[in-house]
Amino acid sequence: MRTRNTEKMELVRNMTMQMVAANGIENFSVNSLAKACGISVATLYIYYKDKDDLIAQVAIEEGTQLTNAILKDFDPDQSFETGLWQQWQSRAQYLMANPLSSSFLEKIHMSSYSEKVGGAISNMFHNTMHRFVEGAVKRGELVPLQVEAWWSVAFAPLYNLLRFHYQGRSISKKPFALTDELLRQTFEVVVKALKP
């Protein structure tokens, strides 16, 4: 069996993310990818079974990197406010440093690949976050909410600020860059909404 060419694999991974982020999964093809990478389609099939395997493997790798960044030094038993602020900072830091990964993972999340990719990386993440939320509710630091409602209030504002940051403009079409001050101000409003 041929050994993996790590340079080639990195090129394929980055080009896959670029193409999916720019044009969506439905417009992604192995032929276009091979052409963009300057390699043959046969070379891709040395490393991946098919298009689905390629997309899933790249997404799992990216999702794992994001999860590792989010959970790095995270203590699920810390206070709700401290832990949520750490989550905001970790997510903002990683996603601002990796906008291509963010855009790619968003497309994956909104696709049929979401369940497969999520299943491959979710156990540690979900167990840690479940423990964090459950502990905060038991200590009376968090309003008991259905997980989807809690998640929406806790993180949607952060992800919207990041979208404006990536676009470089606000909803009113003015130039926009996310600052630490605005991140903290928004976080304070979110924490206030989630506390009993």
Would you mind describing this structure in some detail?
- By secondary structure, this protein is mainly alpha-helical.
- The chain has a domain at 6-141: Tetracycline Repressor, domain 2, CATH 1.10.357.
- Helix content is 73%, strand content 0%.
- The protein has helices at residues 6-23, 30-37, 41-47, 51-71, 80-97, 99-109, 114-138, 147-167, 180-194.
- The longest helix has 25 residues, at 114-138.
- The protein is globular and about 60 Å long.
- The chain starts with 5 loop residues before the first helix and ends with a helix.
- One of its GO terms (molecular function) is DNA binding.
- Keywords: DNA-binding.
Q: What does the radius of gyration come to?
A: 19 Å
Q: Total helix count?
A: 9
For the sheet with most strands, the description reads:
none
Distance between the termini: 59 Å
Beta strand count: 0
Give the structural class: mainly alpha
Please identify, by name, the CATH architecture of the domain at 6-141.
Answer: Orthogonal Bundle
CATH class wording of the domain at 6-141: Mainly Alpha
Could you state the order of secondary-structure elements as H and E?
A: HHHHHHHHH
The outline comes out as globular
CATH fold assignment of the domain at 6-141: Tetracycline Repressor, domain 2
Per CATH, the superfamily of the domain at 6-141 is: Tetracycline Repressor, domain 2
Name the average pLDDT.
Answer: 93
Which residues sit in consecutive blocks of at least 5 with pLDDT less than 50?
A: none
Q: How much helical structure, as a percent, in the residues?
A: over 70%
- Bin the strand percentage: under 5%
Domain HTH tetR-type: 6-66
Protein name: TetR/AcrR family transcriptional regulator
Pfam families: TetR_N
Keywords: DNA-binding
